[in-house]
Amino acid sequence: MNNKQLSSLSLLALCIGTLSACGGGSDNSLNQPDSVNVAANKNSNTQNNSDTGSSNGDQVTGDENKYSQRGRVIDGYVSGAKVWLDLNNNGSHDADEPSARSTDQGSYLLELTAAQRQCSVYVPTYVDVPVGAIDEDLGEVTKAYQLVLPPSLEAIEDDRIAAHVTPLTTVLWQSLSESETFKGKSCAQLQQEPRLLSELLNILRQTTNEVIAHYNISEQQLFSDYIANEDEQAKQLAERIVLGLQASLKKRLELAEQYPDADEIRVIHYPKTPRSEHSSEQLWYRDIVVFGKGDSTFFSETAQMDSELENVVFVEYLRNTVYQPWGSAGQYKQQIDLIRENAEDTGRCVFEEGVSVSLQGIEYKLSNSLDHKRDNEVQRCDWQQDFSARTERLLSISYGTELVEKHTQIEQRNEMLDGLTDWHSLVNKHTVLAPQELADYFVASGYELEKTLTLPAFSWYKRVTDDSGEHRVMTERFADKDWLRTTYQSDGTYTKQCSEDGITWGSCQ
Predict the structure, then answer these.
(1) 396-399 long-range CB contacts below 8 Å, 24 or more apart?
(2) Where is this region: Disordered (predicted)?
């Protein structure tokens, strides 16, 4: 079983709805955009917001406030939408965050203080498109949705450059927001932590390249006013993306009522080619992720949807995870996965139990797993399993210092499960199992980066992340590959080198 495959969500999905409690004056409620009467408000909005003007949609001119952000809201051009700058990056519009309404041709102008303008490059710009807004191509909006423009993370060189917010920029943001590194990072944090900013800039550039390759568009198309440029390819792609954005917002609001205490809710709709079919036709899929407070509960689902994005055709993947204390020393995890290849597949249940403990600043983790084929579609994945019959075990150790972090993970299977023979069926064993026994298993095992692993292993991975120098250096070793060293520069770029022995380094083939 490939655990990375089981745990991953689609990076290049078409839309995401996020509910998070990241501080900065937000609570855990979701506020659906209010309906608006655009016709009644149109004249007053036009007086307050200046048009962006430029025929190619890439620049704006005029004598607007020196400190401002302007551009267009584009599906078709959308008027009557609320545009706001998320200064603390918590996903909610707080009272002290600037906002404006879009007007003719989707134009908006955010009037900013000098400090807010400086912050605008570090945080996302959101657009709430409510029922009643006007799409100049399609007419009145009947289903609310949200658009996002990711931060550029680079200094403003030309204040006339327009910041357009479109379904294409929203795709980029949802890909970035999957990264734990991006989540909840405020302007103040990024201004104070240049190393973090460098890391985020690298992620932004990598993700931009992935989105461009996935949709076969250029970077210019990704951020452009594709209507003014008469770019029919980008326009049709954006219209398709909006269908997913609307369905995601609707489902996210439903889940917010169903899980009022959730710490975070994500909903993603995206087209993909089913993995079990030979046809190249793309079908709609939906990913849902719900996190409980303090990681107390976790639920995720991947389902194939009908063409209207209203009904589930079948659930392809379902995960439920529960965390609880494990004595005074650690945490216990119980996880169940249901995996189906297609609608006719009865599916298989994958069960995993695990504990994590910390001793003298070192974190140790152990998890056991086994799986069973279901007899029929209605059979439940019953947690009452005999983990003494486990078929796979994962072990990991994380150690080091604040500036030099080290991590090793080991996968063992079947006949390799010698040692730690009592470390199964773990839920109530914190009174009889000593965490020191788990720590002792790693002694003289060769878990360190430069040493040879002596424990039996189906596969293993070692990593050292060094932030003690001017630039971050990450060195990795894999069971079946060469050493890999990645050096991150302050501008977000990076270089990679490979080695067979960790001593002599050269270019990677």
Answers:
(1) 396/364, 396/365, 397/362, 397/363, 397/364, 397/365, 397/442, 397/447, 398/362, 398/363, 398/365, 399/361, 399/362, 399/363
(2) 33-68
